[in-house]
Design a protein that fits this description.
Structural class: mainly beta
Mean pLDDT: 89
Low-confidence stretches: 1-22
Distance between the termini: 94 Å
Helix content: 10-25%
């Protein structure tokens, strides 16, 4: 950065700093350690000649910006080096007239500086303790918080760090002031002390810099001297000194002349005395010949600086001795006006391997009057990268169809224009900046926030501009910037940015943005032009013009244009918006000067207009993307035109105007759409427009459309003679739904319930009714089947099945005790206890023709403790815990999950005097906590009904048997009764809106009798086997009923659902167990149980049990 009083962009030599040890904040970036000195530290400031305090500590955001600038150089010079070997100091030293400068210690043996030596040789000199750093950046004022994109502001901390670190890499001149015969002069350093930058300099007459060569200011050549032009040189005669080297010369070879033009270098400086007064034009020890002279480069000190090092400057660093692969940072640079249009087929990265460097650019058009078509892909993932960048006058860029420019890094931009005028962009391919803060297209200078460069005029004869280089730049800008930065952005492809699809800075005028057929637009359009300094120049944002063969906009309106755009348009001071032809569905908020419509405008957009401006219509206004609202904050005028208004029984299109609304000679086209219809609907055209000011609405033609087709409704338009209002009237039969329902009786009952409230439904029930009204008959029938409580019946029936399974396990446990003589003593000792613990699991499946199908799995634990005395009495307690999952085989796969717990007591009495006769029984109480999911899905209506509740369950079992003992087996004929009662609480579903059901509480019961035979026998080993066969019969009703109602219908909508008992009346049970004794008191049992019902209900389970007697 340039300074006014210090003139210290770069000081090479021995400058003594006093640095308190350990007082800094250190951050590592690649090969650099950034050492931030904090408030309270002191430095011996060479400009002041005294020790001065560091004015303040860097903030976190300032350090982040500093890191971003350092990362730029780490990417380019040492991408694989993370050593942090080079120490870069940073300190705040106050100076109201300054900005920042760099100090890079050097010596006669290392004239290029410590950074250069390490990065080119890998050898690191020990950091001198007198300095405490290898290079230092002094910041003299607080830089504003500017987020860097590919346009980098010199007033940002990031841009400043990029510039000053450039000096640390050796971009400074080695020269010294001498005195001879009382006359002072400047000369280059002696051989060996002259750095590579200085060796590459060539003066305005073509002489190469040489050791000890004197410097001269002259309009004519001076022998043996390095000459720069004098202060009074006119802009037309002005020339920069240049830098030359192998890489620079190859890149700057002008194809028109065959001459390598080299890289321009800033020449002399305006000098000031110690009081700040002008002291002539000449040389100093820091800025003279120490900066790039490339216009707009951050390494210059020109009026506009916004390019973070051009490819020419990277080539210069190569010539200094650095190893740089430029293809990682620039795909192609066009530096000279081509004689014919250019097609650039050079790819930059790929989709799977994008270029990763920060600030990388795929194509840089850095010239005037170039016509360039990009046909190869550009892919980057680095921060602040730029896909394509334009700096110049009257260039035309075309991104060809099928060509992709993809930026995925943070703060990247797809297309950037940052200097010049009358540039045209024809975007026919895809340009996307999908990273955080990305811009699809970015236009601006961002060099000085208080200046407007587009259309600016620079006075080259201004008395306050005595610097010849500055006059030359002003003369160029006087021509280069005498117009809009961008003449037209024409989009027929994809343009997208996460932060903005288009961003126009306050210093950039864009004449036209034309969105045309084939375009896809994602992201906002944001313009800050005219916000700070108003001008007469504005931006025309148009939709629906016809593109020519090259993708440029013509004046012809395109009736085939169609686009949905959901982004916001922010240009209250600068943008005139218009739909020229075709159809635009706009669903954002547009803050613009004015809006005009000549096509068909749809959507739910909000248009906020400038004072004195209006929304003007000659086309078609069609609010919503079905039913919706277009809002105009301002006045609305329609000269003719058509208004397509849609409505249903509860809502309608609205044109909402905050100001005055005037409609003359217009057509209103009224169209009913699918929705809920209760009673008649007023549909006079005036009812669709609201205005905060005056209204003058003249509709000369009303078109009454009706294409609705319904199996439950009929419709008619009619005018009420009492008030002259036009109405749309529906008619619904009293049995509109029940006459169509079929499939089962419960669906018919649900449909009859809907008949009772369909014409006065509310809430989401209106959506349910509307879906039914416009569904086909098959869908209506399917819908009412889904509205029944099938899954709750399946759950209750599965709970009964589980309870019977529990009773079966308990009965089998008690019955089998008669055969336990094969695994333990025949007569237990007095006071003996027995424990058992079983793990079981199985599945159940109902596929009967007359019942709702379901299937599921169940698993759990069954255990207990009991005491058997010498009189034949066994008594104890048991517990059972299980988890069950059920899938109801309905259209939409309802599901239920149940966690169960049961506690009970049991007994068996078989005294010896009964000689094998025994009685047994058990009683238990249980709770089944269930979660039910009952989705409803038909005709686009989708809801997910949920419920959670606890069923309470009680069971009693009593039976008797007779053990017939034989030497090798025991046969036990037996019979028992099992009674189970289940209480279902009131259930009120949630989350299902109109499809929610409420079920009344009820109690359901089962009484089942079983008769069968159990066989226990010992095998030749100590293993024993039990097999039981039983026939079961249900004595109570085989039907379960549920009283249900629709929650959203309030007191209406009740219906009864009845279901056949899935188990039927009769079933067969098979039990089998095999016991493996471990010793006289312990055994392990494996078991199987299957229950088979005549109505295709099957329950299968397996068991592993451990028994211990003590």
């Amino acid at each position: 950065m340039k300074t006014s009083s210090l003139a210290l962009c770069c000081i090479a030599g021995s400058l003594l700093f006093s640095v308190p040890a350990g007082a800094s904040t250190d951050l590592s970036v690649g090969p650099f350690t950034l050492k931030f000195f904090n408030q309270g530290d002191t430095l011996n400031n060479p400009a002041e000649g005294a020790s001065v305090p560091v004015s303040r500590t860097f903030t976190g955001s300032e350090m982040a910006a500093f890191v971003e600038g350092a990362q730029f150089w780490a990417d380019r010079l040492a991408a694989s080096d993370t050593s942090g070997s080079l120490i870069l100091g940073a300190a705040f030293l106050p100076d109201a007239s300054g900005s920042a400068y760099n100090v890079t210690p050097g010596s006669d043996t290392h004239p290029n500086g410590r950074f250069y030596n390490y990065l080119t040789t890998g050898t690191k000199d020990a950091t001198d303790e007198l300095y405490g750093f290898d290079s230092l950046i002094v910041v003299q004022f607080e830089y504003p918080p500017i987020v860097s994109h590919n346009i980098v502001s010199p007033l940002s901390m990031t841009g400043t760090v990029m510039h000053e670190m450039g000096h640390a890499f050796g971009i400074f001149v080695t020269m010294e002031e001498k005195e001879e015969s009382g006359s002072k002069y400047w000369k280059f350093a002696a051989d060996g002390a002259m750095n590579n930058w200085t060796k590459g300099l060539v003066d305005v007459f073509g002489k190469q810099a040489a050791p000890d060569m004197k410097l001269a200011i002259s309009a004519v050549d001076v022998a043996d001297s390095f000459v720069i032009l004098p202060q009074d040189t006119t802009p037309a005669a002005f020339k920069y000194p240049t830098f030359h080297g192998t890489e620079v010369d190859a890149l700057t070879l002008n194809p028109a002349t065959g001459v390598s033009e080299g890289m321009a270098v800033m020449a002399g400086r305006l000098l000031y005395d110690t009081s700040g007064n002008p002291a002539g034009y000449g040389f100093d020890g820091g800025n003279t010949l120490g900066h790039s002279g490339i216009m707009n480069s951050l390494m210059s000190y020109g009026a506009i600086q916004n390019i973070p090092f051009t490819e020419v400057e990277l080539a210069m660093l190569q010539d200094l001795g650095y190893t740089i692969d430029r293809s990682q940072f620039y795909g192609k640079s066009i530096l000279f006006t081509p004689a014919s249009p250019v097609t650039n087929g050079i790819a930059f990265g790929t989709e799977t391997a994008p270029k990763t460097a920060s600030f990388a650019v795929g194509l840089h058009i850095f010239t005037d009057n170039a016509a360039v078509t990009q046909t190869a892909g550009i892919y980057t993932s680095g921060a602040s990268a730029g896909g394509i960048r334009i700096d110049g006058v009257a260039n035309t860029l075309t991104v060809a169809p099928q060509t992709v420019v993809s930026m995925t890094g943070e703060s990247a931009a797809g297309v950037t224009v940052s200097y010049g005028r009358d540039n045209v962009i024809n975007l026919r391919g895809s340009v996307q900046a999908s990273g955080e803060g990305g811009y699809g297209a970015h236009f601006g200078f961002l060099s000085n926030p208080f200046s407007i460069y587009s259309h600016a005029t620079f006075d080259v004869s201004e008395a306050g501009t005595p610097d010849p280089a500055e006059r030359y730049e002003n003369s160029r800008m006087n021509s280069d910037l005498a117009g809009a930065l961008v003449k037209a952005l024409n989009v027929t492809g994809t343009l997208a940015g996460t932060e903005a699809a288009v961003r126009i800075e306050m210093d950039a005028h864009v004449e036209e943005i034309n969105i045309m057929k084939g375009a896809s637009l994602r992201g906002d359009i944001v313009s800050y032009w005219n916000e700070i300094i108003p001008t007469a120049y504005t931006t025309n944002l148009t939709f629906g013009r016809t593109p020519d063969a090259n993708g440029a906009a013509t004046s012809v309106r395109d009736a085939t244009f169609s686009l949905r755009y959901d982004g916001n348009v922010s240009g209250a001071e600068s943008i005139h918006m218009s739909l020229e032809g075709g159809t635009l569905s706009y669903n954002g908020a547009a803050s613009v000067l004015s809006m005009k419509n000549y096509g068909t405008l749809k959507g739910n957009g909000v248009f906020t207009l400038a004072a004195g401006q209006e929304f003007y219509n000659e086309g078609t206004i069609a609010p919503g993307n079905s039913i919706g609202t277009i809002q105009v904050n301002g006045d609305f005028t329609s000269n003719g035109g058509t208004f397509d208004f849609e409505f249903d029984g509860t809502s309608r299109d609205v044109l909402k105007v905050s100001g005055n609304a005037a409609v003359t000679g217009a057509t209103a086209s009224l169209t009913p759409v699918r929705g809920y219809y209760g009673g008649r609907v007023a549909v006079s055209p005036e009812s669709f427009i609201s205005a905060g000011g005056t209204t003058a609405l003249d509709f000369t033609n009303i078109v009454k459309n009706n294409t609705l087709s319904s199996n439950t409704l009929s419709f008619a338009y009619e005018t009420d003679p009492s008030d002259g209002i036009l109405y749309f009237t529906p008619a619904r039969a009293s049995n509109a739904y029940s006459r169509l329902a079929a499939g089962n009786e419960n669906a018919l009952r649900a449909a009859a319930a809907v008949d009772t409230f369909a014409s006065h439904a509310s809430g989401d029930m209106q959506n349910l009714i509307a879906t039914l009204d416009f569904a086909d008959v098959a869908t209506i029938r399917q819908a009412f089947v889904q509205m029944t409580p099938d899954v709750y019946n399946s759950l209750v029936q599965s709970v009964f099945s589980a309870a019977r399974q529990n009773s079966n396990m308990m009965a089998q446990h008690l019955i089998a005790k008669g055969g336990e003589r094969f695994v333990r003593r025949a007569n237990p000792a007095e006071g003996e206890w027995n424990t058992f613990l079983s793990a079981f699991g199985g599945s159940f499946r109902q596929k009967g023709a007359d019942a709702i199908h379901y299937d599921g799995e169940r698993a759990g634990f069954f255990g207990g403790i009991e005491k058997e005395d010498v009189f034949g009495m066994t008594a104890g307690f048991h517990a059972l815990a299980s988890f069950q999952k059920l899938d109801a085989d309905t259209d939409i796969a309802s599901k239920a999950k149940t966690a169960s717990l049961e506690l009970g007591a049991h007994m068996r009495f078989a005294p010896n005097i009964w000689q094998g006769f025994n009685v047994y029984g058990s009683a238990g109480l249980g709770a089944d906590y269930s979660k039910v999911r009952r989705p409803v899905s038909f005709g686009g209506y989708e809801r997910k009904n949920k419920s959670e509740f606890a069923l309470l369950r009680g069971s009693v079992l009593f039976g008797a048997g007779y053990d017939i003992y034989r030497p090798s087996f025991t046969v036990t004929p037996t019979a028992f009764l099992d009674f189970t009662a289940v209480r279902m609480p009131e259930i009120k579903e949630k989350d299902g809106d109109g499809a929610r059901l409420r079920l009344d509480d009820d109690i359901y019961s089962s009484l089942r009798g079983s008769v069968g035979l159990n066989l226990a026998m010992g095998l030749p080993t100590t293993v024993s086997v039990d097999v039981g066969l039983y026939w079961n019969h249900e004595f109570l009703d085989d039907e379960l009923s549920y009283q249900a109602r629709f929650v959203e219908a309030g007191g209406a909508g009740a219906f009864k659902a009845s279901y056949v008992n899935a188990a039927g009346s009769d079933s067969a049970t098979v039990n089998a167990q095999i016991r493996f004794p471990l010793d006289l008191s312990r055994n392990i049992t494996l078991g199987f149980s299957g229950e088979f019902y005549q109505d295709d209900l099957t329950i299968l389970s397996g068991m592993l049990s451990y028994n211990w007697t003590f």
